[in-house]
């Protein structure tokens, strides 16, 4: 899938074909938001009902507003995430308002691992974590389908070994 952006700049290098992360990442993140914000909102509403204190309604209303904000924001954030494999490096981009792009040369990678918690496994997604010699340049690609995460881990590890062997 090619990037829909026509512009070329620091976040959209020319000729780069971006691969999106799985849309199931949005569902997993929304489930987390529902648990962390929805459950306390319901508890706050029950407390406000039982106590009869009108001021207590501010808590569930604020939590519900944050939950609505998550429902709007999270899918956009996930759509903005992507990665691209080039001949000598891997590009990772994310962000809507605060955009970032990380370029990781294959020769700088020390090891690559795949992680998935219980919620991620339930949605069939995983995170590929890249570790380099400098902790500040470690990068992660969250929300990859499990088979793509495995493929990418093996591909990056072999490219990294090839680049190190050539030094």
Automatic annotation (TrEMBL):
Keywords: Membrane, Transmembrane, Transmembrane helix. It comes from the Bacteria. The chain crosses the membrane at residues 28-50, 56-74. Pfam families: bPH_2. The keyword Transmembrane helix applies. Residues 79-156 form the YdbS-like PH domain. This is Membrane protein. It comes from Cellulomonas aerilata.
